[in-house]
């Protein structure tokens, strides 16, 4: 069949086959490039997902212990524990406001959260970091620091104003 074609037809057929091969190579190359890009995006996102997973596991373990420990249910008792921590670190006299936010039910009423909004004036960052460490890591109180904001007043270089929200979760009494 190839012998029956005119030279001009053979040339057109070779050009058409060459173009078809080039198009196929281009499509295959784009597909491989897209797959490699997706794979590298997945690899780059993995550390962030591990951090997120660690946080979720930590929260799960925290909430699962609330079923056995009960957590903080009484606002006045919780306030007393916080004041003891503040006193131990020498910042109790620097509290400008310490107000409770009304308790809320979360997770379909299974847990209850008590939040205290505490403002300090003229405290050192070192003492506040020790307070946060005592609350979050040492578990002197069954709570977490949910919000922490530092602002620099103009008067002194080594003291700061600090606003923090401390949340205590508890398994709801059944």
TrEMBL record:
Keywords: Membrane, Transmembrane, Transmembrane helix. This is Type II secretion system protein M. The keyword Membrane applies. The chain crosses the membrane at residues 12-29. It comes from Leptospira broomii serovar Hurstbridge str. 5399. The keyword Transmembrane applies. The lineage of its organism: Bacteria, Pseudomonadati, Spirochaetota, Spirochaetia, Leptospirales.
